[in-house]
Each structure stands twice: as C-alpha cells, then as structure tokens.
Fold each of these.
Amino acid sequence: MKTRYSSLVSIKKDAMQKSERVVQEQNHLLQKAQKAYEEALKSFGDIEFPSNGKVSDFLAARGLMEAQQAIVEKNSAWVAYAKSQLQQAQETLKKAMIEYEKFNYLELEEMKKIEQQRKIQEAKELDEVALLTHAQKLSEKTFS
C-alpha cells in the first residue's frame, strides 16, 4: 500500500544501506591498516645490529632501523585515521538508521489510519445495505 511516506522510506532505506556499505569498507580498511602496523612492528623487531664489524655496517643497520621506525609511525597514524573514519561512518549510519526508522514508523502509522478509514467506510456501506434491505423487506410486507 502506497502512502505519502513510501518514497521517503525507500530513499532513507537506500541511504542507510549505503552507510552500511561505507562502514563495512572502513572496517576493512581498519583491518588492513592494523595488519600493516603489526607487520611493521614485527619487521622492526627482526632487525639485528651487528656486534662487531665496520662502522658502515652499524650505520646501515641504524638507517634500516630509522626507516622501519618511520614505517611503524606511518602505519600507526594510518590506524588512527582508519579508526576515526570508521567512527565517523558509524555515526553516519546511526543517523541514517534513525531517519529510516522515523519515516518507516510514520508510514506504518499512515497505513494504520488508511486501514481504519477503510474499515469505517466498509462498515458504513454494510449498514447502508442492511438498511436498504430492511426497508425493502418492510415495503414488500406492506404490499403483500
């Protein structure tokens, strides 16, 4: 049954579904960022310093450690960004769900009103038919 809210409900439902997809994408990106961060930390822990040797070996190890530390910091920032994006997407989804539920409720209430009016109209028509039938039976008795 179509109501004046039907088109709004479908629009709000589409917006809610779009928000759900965005939340899923952001969740996937967060998982990807966390995995990259964990791998960077593991690689950082795997770096070994030479205990003896040339100074260039020590400098190379130090450079490698600094580069890996920069990667860890970059991935840490990525995780923080992904978390904030996910939180933002969840807030948007929450608002979209509230809007959808609000208009869905209004549509259901409108349907109830229409159904109630239909029942009242049907009852009036049945009463009218009963009155006509009763009046017809009375006129048949008077003519008989």
Amino acid sequence: MNQTEIILQVKRDFEKIVDTTLVRLVSEYDRERRKLKIQKQRTYSKVYTIKTGAKNNWIIVLGKSPSVETYKNPGDGIAWNAATYFYDAKGLKVLKWTDPYLNVYSAHFFQRYNQRLKLNLNNPYEIIKHYLIHNMHNGYHCEINNRKPYFIGFSKEGLQLGTLEQGNLMLWRTFVSADLIRSDQHEMKQQVIRTLYAQWMKAVIENKPDTSTARFTWNQLNMLNGKYDPQ
C-alpha cells in the first residue's frame, strides 16, 4: 500500500473502533472494575487487543481519566489510547490516528524508549503497551525551522521528537528520558504547562470545565505535572 492508502485504512479502522468496538470494551471494562471492586481513585489501566476486519492488529488502553477524581460510570471519565502495529522491510511500525494526523513510530523510537527508561523489556509488544499506558495525555510544542515543523511531545517520563511531513504524517523519531532533557527543552515544557493552564482557567471562567476539550486539557496538565499514575 502507498502512503495515502495506509492513512485511509488506519482512519477507517479507528472510526470503526470508536463506533463499535470501543462501546463494547468500555462496558467490559466497567464490569471488571465493579467485579474486582477497584478503588474509585485508581486509574486501573487495562489493555485490550483486537484484530479489525482489515486484518490489522490494534492495542487499546482504557483507564479512569485524570479529569475525574473518582470513577463513577462508563459514561463519565474514561480515557483511552489506541495504536496499530505491523512489520515492513524496515522493521516494526506503530501507527496512531489523531485527526487529521497519522502518527508513525519506528522500531528505533521504541528501542530508545526501552533503553532510556531502563525498562529491560524484550518483547516489542510489551514496549508498545507500556508506551500507550504511560503516554496517554502528552503536551506538545511546535517550532518551525527552515519552513519545516518540528514537534516535541512532553510526558511525565521525558519527551519525544518528531517532524510533520507531507500528507499529514507525524513521524516520531526518538525518545529522550527526563534525565537527558536540556534546559531549553525544560523551559519549553513549562511554557506548554502555562498555556494549558490558561486554557483550563478560561474554560472554568466560562463555566465550561466539563467539555471534552477542557477535560482533555486537564488530563494533559495532570500528566505534565507528574500527577498521572496509570495504575
């Protein structure tokens, strides 16, 4: 498949998951939380694997959203993350759809993620799963160099570096752990936090803290301030 066909297939898969599969998984997740009597304050991240009609393997993570203090019901405060993966001539590829972009992660990205966080994981599936669980609510910074957009995705564990390519492809090239972050990158992260906080306060002042956008912003703030525990 060419680039356009890949983008369309991942987009179709993602939309089908949202419309059908996610409804079933949220219900299943809710039943498990209640059956196991999981504390309402816990995130309780749960991983599901599916194969779509297009024969693509997807990893889906569900958990209590940081935007709610206690879990109440499946319709209030569940966050989720999803990616599909496959192998081509260059090795492992992981794809995530975040409208209108297709995020592409290479095997090198996950090798660095595993290495720099000292996870000591040997199975690529386990590395991908760890990434999806711990990087559900990242905050982003963009800079333009020589007319090319460069992105930094900040998380609790560190940052990821990528570029925006033609055809709405976001290529994430490597991961840098928190202990290796430069002072200028740290200041970028603080600016992202200040911007998100201003957006959150605007929503509060306008009495709109329960909108999906405001909740997503609060999730990002919790992640960047180190208050997100996926367990």
